[in-house]
Amino acid sequence: MSDDGRTRIRRAVEADAAAIAHVHLTSRSVTMPYLPPQKRGHEEVTRWFRDVVLKRCRIWVAVRDAEVVGYAALDGDVLEHLYLRPEFRRLGIGTLLLDEVRRHSPDGVSLHVFQQNADARAFYERHGFTVFDTTDGERNMEHLPDMTLRWTPGRSR
């Protein structure tokens, strides 16, 4: 199934913080049940996006029928976040967001993914990312084994 053109990608603004927080919290809880329970509530995560992430990263949102259904956050050449509301997965929206990130990353993009997140790993591998390194979880706050993936223009799709 693919997106039918009803989704548009635009730069995020401060007013999007609550919707981005909702996407973030919902996606993580549904798609990554192995993560420890979220200790921060919606208001605290909204503040974090508004006061930290939106100031540090370039963020794009996927908007469908006037609702934010996904977002991607790029810090330099590192894709810090790419999340979709669970009911909007596998419609091509993640690809639209990733394509926008890659357009703004002429030298390539790196990202970290939990090793057990098979869906995300498959998504990025389909889009030309390759494994750069793996760790036992010492670099993430969840302390779960992760890996760095890298996409370099011209090496694949």
Summary keywords:
seven-stranded mixed beta sheet; single chain; globular; 32% helix; Aminopeptidase; 157 residues; alpha+beta
Percent of sequence in beta strands: 25-35%
Rg from alpha-carbon coordinates: 15 Å
Structural class estimated from helices and strands = alpha+beta
Mean pLDDT score, rounded? 90
Work out the helicity level. Answer: 25-40%
Which architecture name does CATH use?
3-Layer(aba) Sandwich
InterPro entries: Acyl_CoA_acyltransferase, Bact_Acetyltransf, GNAT_dom
Pfam families: Acetyltransf_7
Protein name: GNAT family N-acetyltransferase
Organism: Streptomyces mobaraensis (Streptoverticillium mobaraense)
Show the helix and strand layout:
Elements: E1 7-11, H1 17-31, H2 42-56, E2 58-64, E3 67-75, E4 78-84, H3 93-103, E5 109-114, H4 118-126, E6 130-135, E7 146-151
Parallel strand pairs: 4-5
Antiparallel strand pairs: 1-2, 2-3, 3-4, 5-7, 6-7
Helix pairs in contact: 1-2
